[in-house]
């Protein structure tokens, strides 16, 4: 489904991703862990098509197409979803209007009939229930005045509604208490499907107790340095990222890394 | 704010403006006009006749003010003159209205009355000007005056409306203004409001289009515990020019004012938002807030935001803020990442930016009309933004 090969990315002239390779197949859940500044969020943003990231080498193939050729909205319509680390507040735009516009734009792009208000609300109510989100969320402005936990749950709710093929969760667990964490995990687990893949970016092993990954990758200084199954996350939790650094002999660029 | 040189009482304000900016240049050094004098001087190069008060209104124009919710409560002025033919005021029981040729006095004595005033600017064969005066006296609660300006395209029209709102003790009034004008119409509106003790005056304004719109509001919080709130937005494109001067004066104890405006300018449009708050000596306990946010959608558009705070009392809460910026890239990316195409995402953001200020208008019909008007003035998908 997703094939990232030797990806190099610069932000404001500084190289952040330094030859990252990753293959994600349908039905798989991949966790990407790593210390601050490793480039985890950059990866999520590059895949979703945010501006300001210069791809200097490498390729990203998604569902048989060159992902990097597509506009962000085309990527979304083709089934890619990024749950933001910092969901954006949009005052004056209510959630119902926003999500209906998003869903119908995606459906239109795919040549599917647009949903009318009744069909849309029916779909919304089901998803709200699963995530224990009160109905009044839909009449509020997008993320405006939401608590950190509400914003993250809103991201998962959007994911449930838009039903992507590939979902990238960028530190969706950060700032969540244990109840909210479980709700988010329940939301993700309810969507696990042989046709759907997840890339879960996280600092902490805790989330992976609830969303059990098929693969765990450790990212350090712009590339994946170690991959394994979920036991790798447990080892990381026990030994910390220093353990990974010790296992991977210093290479030439580490001297400059913070 | 400077008083007009000829005094606000002089009737033919439009003629005075044209004369002062065209021939005699006496107003050129007036600081409050610094951003608009060029625009007005250009207008004053033409010969203006008195606009025809019996001009016919095209059906497309009457449709724009024929609102179901204000039938029987509508007073129409054609080129500044009261028009019995286009008015429909049969249901105005608690409002007394005195009409002279180019002025009207509205007195609200009962509670919860709604009046819809329409000012239509209709061009003639040559540039034309009109004047009107409006006197609104409020001595009860729940009064709502809707002031709507419409116009037909054609030769230049310059309209001037002077209004005075007088709110008695414990009176409460809302003045909602919708100006949606073709690029051949210019409009000067000068509003004074006096609020007595425990009185409340709320305004909401949505300004679109026009060759030149100049709006001056002087609000005096004259009685203790009087309150004023102002909400407004302008959305401009082409070479449209809107110049807003707000002047809120706290003159008594424990008064409150709260001003929130949004401005959007695209292409080569120009917006000016001057907001002054004065707290007079002895007006302790004043709570004054002024916030304006502005969006520039093109490198050739310009918005000048000037908050001015003058405080002569000790125990005062006052805050002001003015920003001019561009569309938030991260918000745009967020919407696009959910599948919304770039042009539609821009429209959503700009619309939301403006609609936010009208969110607390209680009259749902009016709120949806203001929001709809914003929607029709947003940059359209596929439109070139130089």
Summarize this entry quickly.
Chain A is an alpha/beta fold. Chain A has helices at 40-48, 72-77, 95-109, 117-130, 148-162, 178-191, 206-210, 230-239, 241-247; strands at 2-11, 14-24, 29-33, 53-62, 65-66, 80-83, 90-94, 141-142, 166-170, 197-202, 215-220, 223-228.
Features of the shown structure:
heterodimer; A: 258 residues; alpha/beta; 6-stranded mixed beta sheet; 9 helices; 37% helix; globular; B: 386 residues; disordered N terminus
Secondary-structure topology with pairs:
The complex is a heterodimer of chains A (258) and B (386).
Chain A: E1 2-11, E2 14-24, E3 29-33, H1 40-48, E4 53-62, E5 65-66, H2 72-77, E6 80-83, E7 90-94, H3 95-109, H4 117-130, E8 141-142, H5 148-162, E9 166-170, H6 178-191, E10 197-202, H7 206-210, E11 215-220, E12 223-228, H8 230-239, H9 241-247
Helix pairs in contact in A: 5-6
Chain B: H1 13-22, H2 37-43, E1 49-50, H3 59-65, E2 74-78, E3 81-82, E4 95-100, E5 103-108, E6 114-121, E7 128-138, E8 143-151, E9 157-167, E10 172-181, E11 185-195, E12 200-209, E13 212-221, E14 227-236, E15 241-250, E16 256-265, E17 270-279, E18 286-296, E19 302-311, E20 316-325, H4 329-336, H5 342-355, H6 364-377
Helix pairs in contact in B: 1-2, 4-5, 5-6
């Amino acid at each position: 489904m997703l094939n990232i090969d030797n990806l190099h990315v610069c932000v404001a002239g500084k190289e952040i991703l330094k030859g990252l390779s990753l293959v994600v197949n349908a039905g798989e859940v991949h966790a990407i862990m790593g210390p601050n500044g490793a480039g985890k969020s950059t990866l999520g943003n590059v895949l979703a098509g945010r501006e300001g990231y210069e791809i200097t080498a490498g390729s990203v193939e998604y569902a048989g197409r060159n992902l990097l050729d597509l506009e962000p909205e085309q990527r979304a319509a083709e089934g890619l979803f990024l749950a933001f680390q910092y969901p954006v507040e949009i005052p004056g735009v209510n959630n119902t209007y926003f999500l209906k516009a998003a869903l119908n734009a995606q459906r239109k792009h795919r040549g599917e009939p647009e949903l009318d208000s009744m069909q849309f609300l029916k779909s919304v109510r089901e998803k709200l229930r699963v995530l224990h989100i009160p109905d009044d969320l839909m009449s509020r402005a997008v993320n405006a005045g939401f608590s950190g936990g509400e914003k993250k749950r809103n991201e998962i709710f959007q994911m449930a509604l838009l039903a992507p093929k590939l979902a990238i969760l960028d530190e969706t667990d950060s700032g969540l208490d244990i109840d909210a964490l479980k709700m988010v995990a329940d939301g993700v687990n309810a969507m696990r499907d042989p046709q759907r893949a997840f890339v879960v970016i996280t600092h902490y092993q805790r989330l992976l107790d609830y969303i059990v990954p098929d693969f765990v990758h450790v990212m350090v200084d712009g590339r994946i340095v170690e991959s394994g199954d979920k036991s790798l996350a447990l080892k990381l939790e026990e030994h910390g990222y220093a353990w990974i650094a010790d296992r991977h002999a210093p290479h030439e660029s580490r001297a400059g890394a913070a | 704010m400077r008083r007009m040189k000829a005094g606000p009482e002089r009737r033919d304000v439009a003629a005075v403006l044209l004369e002062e900016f065209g021939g005699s240049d006496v107003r050129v050094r007036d600081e409050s006009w610094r951003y608009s004098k060029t625009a007005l001087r250009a207008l004053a190069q033409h010969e203006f006749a008195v606009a025809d008060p019996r001009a016919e209104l095209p059906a497309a124009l009457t449709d724009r003010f024929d609102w179901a919710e204000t039938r029987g409560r509508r007073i129409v002025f054609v080129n500044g003159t009261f028009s019995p033919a286009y008015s429909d005021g049969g249901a105005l029981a608690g409002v007394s209205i005195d009409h002279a040729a180019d002025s009207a006095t509205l007195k609200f004595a009962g509670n919860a009355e709604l009046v819809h005033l329409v000012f239509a600017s209709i061009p003639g064969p040559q540039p034309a000007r009109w004047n009107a005066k409006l006197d609104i006296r409020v001595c009860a609660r729940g009064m709502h005056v809707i002031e709507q300006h419409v116009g037909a395209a054609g030769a230049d029209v310059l309209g001037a409306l002077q209004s005075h709102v007088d709110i008695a003790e414990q009176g409460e009034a809302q003045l909602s203004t919708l100006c949606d004008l073709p690029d051949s119409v210019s409009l000067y509106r000068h509003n004074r409001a006096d609020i007595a003790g425990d009185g409340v005056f709320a305004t909401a304004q949505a300004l679109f289009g026009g060759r030149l719109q100049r709006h001056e509001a002087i609000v005096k919080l004259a009685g203790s515990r009087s309150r004023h709130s102002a909400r407004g937005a302008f959305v401009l494109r082409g070479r449209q020019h809107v110049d807003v001067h707000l002047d809120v004066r706290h003159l008594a104890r424990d008064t409150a004012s709260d001003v929130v405006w949004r401005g959007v300018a695209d292409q080569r449009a120009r917006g000016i938002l001057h907001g002054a708050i004065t707290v007079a000596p002895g007006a302790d306990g004043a709570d004054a807030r002024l916030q304006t946010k502005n969006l520039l959608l093109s490198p050739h558009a310009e918005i000048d935001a000037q908050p001015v705070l003058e405080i002569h009392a000790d125990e005062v809460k006052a805050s002001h803020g003015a920003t001019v910026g561009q569309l938030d890239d991260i918000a745009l990316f967020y919407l696009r990442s959910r599948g919304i195409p770039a042009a539609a995402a821009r429209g959503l953001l700009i619309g939301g930016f403006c609609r936010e200020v009208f969110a607390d208008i209680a009259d749902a019909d009016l709120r949806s009309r203001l929001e709809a008007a914003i929607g029709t003035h947003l940059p359209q998908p596929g439109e070139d933004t130089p």
